[in-house]
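Sequence and structure are kept together here, with a separate record for every protein. An example record follows, reproduced without changes.
>
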Amino acid sequence: MQSSRLEAFSDGVLAIIITIMVLELHAPDGPTLHDLWKGAGQSLLTYLLSFVYVGIYWNNHHHLFQVVSRVDGLVLWANLHLLFWLSLYPFTTSWMDAQDLARVPTIAYGVNLIGAAIAYSLLVLAIRRLPSGAHIGEVFGSDWKGKTSIALYAVGIALTFVVPWVGVVPYVAVALLWLIPDRRVERWLQRHDQVPTG
Protein backbone atom coordinates (compact mmCIF):
# COMPACT_ATOMS: atom_id res chain seq x y z
CA MET A 1 0.00 0.00 0.00
CA GLN A 2 1.08 3.58 -0.59
CA SER A 3 2.69 5.49 2.31
CA SER A 4 0.72 8.71 1.72
CA ARG A 5 -2.07 7.94 4.23
CA LEU A 6 0.47 7.01 6.90
CA GLU A 7 2.30 10.30 6.32
CA ALA A 8 -0.88 12.39 6.41
CA PHE A 9 -2.07 10.74 9.62
CA SER A 10 1.34 11.17 11.26
CA ASP A 11 1.50 14.84 10.26
CA GLY A 12 -1.90 15.42 11.85
CA VAL A 13 -0.93 13.69 15.09
CA LEU A 14 2.30 15.69 15.36
CA ALA A 15 0.41 18.95 14.77
CA ILE A 16 -2.01 18.03 17.58
CA ILE A 17 0.90 17.18 19.90
CA ILE A 18 2.43 20.62 19.36
CA THR A 19 -0.96 22.27 19.90
CA ILE A 20 -1.50 20.43 23.18
CA MET A 21 1.97 21.40 24.40
CA VAL A 22 1.48 25.08 23.66
CA LEU A 23 -1.88 25.07 25.47
CA GLU A 24 0.01 24.07 28.64
CA LEU A 25 1.76 27.46 28.63
CA HIS A 26 0.15 30.10 30.84
CA ALA A 27 0.35 33.85 30.42
CA PRO A 28 2.42 35.71 33.06
CA ASP A 29 0.66 37.72 35.75
CA GLY A 30 2.32 40.99 34.78
CA PRO A 31 3.43 42.96 31.70
CA THR A 32 7.21 42.92 32.20
CA LEU A 33 9.96 40.58 31.02
CA HIS A 34 10.61 39.80 34.67
CA ASP A 35 6.99 38.65 35.01
CA LEU A 36 7.38 36.56 31.87
CA TRP A 37 10.51 34.86 33.17
CA LYS A 38 9.13 34.43 36.68
CA GLY A 39 5.78 33.11 35.51
CA ALA A 40 6.64 31.14 32.39
CA GLY A 41 10.41 31.12 31.84
CA GLN A 42 11.03 27.47 32.61
CA SER A 43 7.78 26.48 30.89
CA LEU A 44 8.91 28.22 27.71
CA LEU A 45 12.27 26.42 27.83
CA THR A 46 10.78 22.96 28.38
CA TYR A 47 8.20 23.67 25.66
CA LEU A 48 10.99 24.78 23.32
CA LEU A 49 12.94 21.58 23.99
CA SER A 50 9.93 19.36 23.32
CA PHE A 51 8.89 21.43 20.29
CA VAL A 52 12.37 20.93 18.82
CA TYR A 53 12.08 17.18 19.44
CA VAL A 54 8.70 16.96 17.71
CA GLY A 55 10.17 19.00 14.84
CA ILE A 56 13.14 16.64 14.59
CA TYR A 57 10.88 13.61 14.42
CA TRP A 58 8.63 15.26 11.85
CA ASN A 59 11.67 16.15 9.73
CA ASN A 60 13.21 12.67 9.96
CA HIS A 61 9.85 10.99 9.35
CA HIS A 62 9.35 13.14 6.25
CA HIS A 63 12.83 12.28 4.97
CA LEU A 64 12.30 8.59 5.63
CA PHE A 65 9.13 8.48 3.56
CA GLN A 66 10.71 10.43 0.71
CA VAL A 67 12.70 7.28 -0.06
CA VAL A 68 10.00 4.70 0.74
CA SER A 69 6.86 4.63 -1.36
CA ARG A 70 5.11 1.48 -0.13
CA VAL A 71 4.40 0.10 3.35
CA ASP A 72 2.68 -2.89 4.94
CA GLY A 73 0.79 -3.62 8.15
CA LEU A 74 3.93 -4.05 10.25
CA VAL A 75 5.17 -0.62 9.20
CA LEU A 76 1.77 0.88 10.08
CA TRP A 77 1.96 -0.60 13.58
CA ALA A 78 5.60 0.46 13.99
CA ASN A 79 4.56 3.98 13.02
CA LEU A 80 1.71 3.93 15.57
CA HIS A 81 4.22 2.76 18.19
CA LEU A 82 6.35 5.83 17.41
CA LEU A 83 3.30 8.12 17.57
CA PHE A 84 2.39 6.63 20.96
CA TRP A 85 5.71 7.73 22.46
CA LEU A 86 5.54 11.13 20.79
CA SER A 87 1.98 11.65 22.04
CA LEU A 88 3.31 11.39 25.61
CA TYR A 89 5.55 14.45 25.12
CA PRO A 90 2.91 16.96 26.29
CA PHE A 91 2.32 14.94 29.46
CA THR A 92 5.97 14.35 30.41
CA THR A 93 6.95 17.91 29.44
CA SER A 94 4.17 19.39 31.58
CA TRP A 95 4.98 17.14 34.55
CA MET A 96 8.70 17.89 34.41
CA ASP A 97 7.99 21.62 34.20
CA ALA A 98 5.32 21.68 36.93
CA GLN A 99 7.66 19.88 39.33
CA ASP A 100 10.63 22.18 38.61
CA LEU A 101 12.79 19.46 37.05
CA ALA A 102 12.34 17.11 40.00
CA ARG A 103 13.97 13.68 39.78
CA VAL A 104 11.07 11.36 38.88
CA PRO A 105 9.41 13.65 36.29
CA THR A 106 12.78 14.35 34.64
CA ILE A 107 13.51 10.61 34.52
CA ALA A 108 10.04 10.05 33.02
CA TYR A 109 10.84 12.64 30.36
CA GLY A 110 14.09 10.81 29.59
CA VAL A 111 12.27 7.48 29.36
CA ASN A 112 9.82 9.16 26.96
CA LEU A 113 12.73 10.39 24.82
CA ILE A 114 14.46 7.02 24.75
CA GLY A 115 11.16 5.26 24.03
CA ALA A 116 10.55 7.48 21.00
CA ALA A 117 14.12 6.94 19.76
CA ILE A 118 13.81 3.16 20.01
CA ALA A 119 10.39 3.28 18.34
CA TYR A 120 11.85 5.26 15.43
CA SER A 121 14.64 2.69 15.07
CA LEU A 122 12.06 -0.11 15.02
CA LEU A 123 10.12 1.77 12.34
CA VAL A 124 13.25 1.95 10.19
CA LEU A 125 13.88 -1.78 10.75
CA ALA A 126 10.29 -2.58 9.74
CA ILE A 127 10.79 -0.57 6.54
CA ARG A 128 14.18 -2.12 5.76
CA ARG A 129 12.66 -5.60 5.44
CA LEU A 130 10.36 -4.44 2.61
CA PRO A 131 11.40 -4.65 -1.06
CA SER A 132 10.73 -0.88 -1.27
CA GLY A 133 13.01 -0.27 1.73
CA ALA A 134 16.02 -2.38 0.76
CA HIS A 135 18.04 0.76 -0.03
CA ILE A 136 17.51 2.37 3.43
CA GLY A 137 20.97 1.30 4.59
CA GLU A 138 22.50 2.99 1.57
CA VAL A 139 20.54 6.18 2.23
CA PHE A 140 21.08 6.53 5.98
CA GLY A 141 24.30 4.64 6.59
CA SER A 142 25.16 3.40 10.07
CA ASP A 143 22.79 5.81 11.87
CA TRP A 144 25.44 6.92 14.33
CA LYS A 145 23.23 9.84 15.39
CA GLY A 146 20.41 7.51 16.40
CA LYS A 147 22.71 5.22 18.39
CA THR A 148 24.47 8.18 20.04
CA SER A 149 21.10 9.70 20.95
CA ILE A 150 19.93 6.57 22.78
CA ALA A 151 23.23 6.42 24.68
CA LEU A 152 22.98 10.11 25.66
CA TYR A 153 19.38 9.66 26.84
CA ALA A 154 20.57 6.81 29.07
CA VAL A 155 23.35 9.05 30.42
CA GLY A 156 20.78 11.79 31.08
CA ILE A 157 18.53 9.39 33.00
CA ALA A 158 21.51 8.21 35.07
CA LEU A 159 22.62 11.79 35.81
CA THR A 160 19.10 12.67 36.94
CA PHE A 161 19.50 10.23 39.82
CA VAL A 162 22.48 12.33 40.97
CA VAL A 163 21.40 15.91 40.24
CA PRO A 164 18.01 16.14 38.47
CA TRP A 165 18.59 19.29 36.40
CA VAL A 166 21.99 18.02 35.19
CA GLY A 167 20.15 15.10 33.57
CA VAL A 168 18.52 17.58 31.19
CA VAL A 169 21.91 18.55 29.70
CA PRO A 170 22.27 15.36 27.59
CA TYR A 171 18.64 15.77 26.45
CA VAL A 172 19.50 19.25 25.18
CA ALA A 173 22.73 17.95 23.62
CA VAL A 174 20.81 15.38 21.56
CA ALA A 175 18.40 18.05 20.32
CA LEU A 176 21.34 20.23 19.26
CA LEU A 177 22.96 17.25 17.53
CA TRP A 178 19.86 16.71 15.39
CA LEU A 179 19.43 20.40 14.54
CA ILE A 180 22.37 20.11 12.15
CA PRO A 181 20.71 19.70 8.72
CA ASP A 182 20.84 16.16 7.36
CA ARG A 183 21.42 16.11 3.59
CA ARG A 184 21.68 12.32 3.11
CA VAL A 185 18.20 11.93 1.63
CA GLU A 186 18.61 14.83 -0.80
CA ARG A 187 21.98 13.48 -1.93
CA TRP A 188 20.55 9.98 -2.46
CA LEU A 189 17.57 11.32 -4.41
CA GLN A 190 19.88 13.40 -6.63
CA ARG A 191 22.14 10.41 -7.30
CA HIS A 192 19.14 8.32 -8.32
CA ASP A 193 17.46 11.13 -10.31
CA GLN A 194 14.39 11.12 -8.13
CA VAL A 195 12.37 14.14 -7.11
CA PRO A 196 10.82 14.29 -3.62
CA THR A 197 7.05 13.89 -3.72
CA GLY A 198 6.23 15.96 -0.65
Q: What stands out?
A: The mean pLDDT is 89. The chain has nine helices and no strands. Residues 33-64 form the longest helix (32 residues).
